[in-house]
Predict the structure.
Amino acid sequence: MSASPVCPGTGVRLVPRTYKVRPVTDADREQYARFERSATERGDADEAEYYRSVIPKWETEVGQEREALVCAVCGRTSLSPTRAGTARRHQRWDSETPSWDRVYELRKEINALNEELDRVLVQLDAQSEA
Ligand SMILES: [Zn+2]
């Protein structure tokens, strides 16, 4: 049984993050060659053609900056957001190596959200007194 915990970012709004397109690895080449073979075996020429085009295209994009919506907690990519823009239930992704930059970034986000929380609470207070 999988012991991977559900990410605490589940239900939290996804955040945009910029990243650099990483270089293609041998494992990537093997994976797409496998996809292409199985599409060919299924007789799906269009799909095989698509898989054949992925690696050459990817190689021209290495190092380019992209923006993606990621889980605010674990940084997981390729989560399709809910209608409210929040992350669906997913297991946490521990690909991120710990760094001080990440600590400062989290601190900044938490402080900003704390200020927002205080502001909303003050507004609610004012409302209930009115
Ligand atoms: Zn997550």
Notes: DSSP finds three helices and two strands in the chain. The longest strand covers residues 15-20.
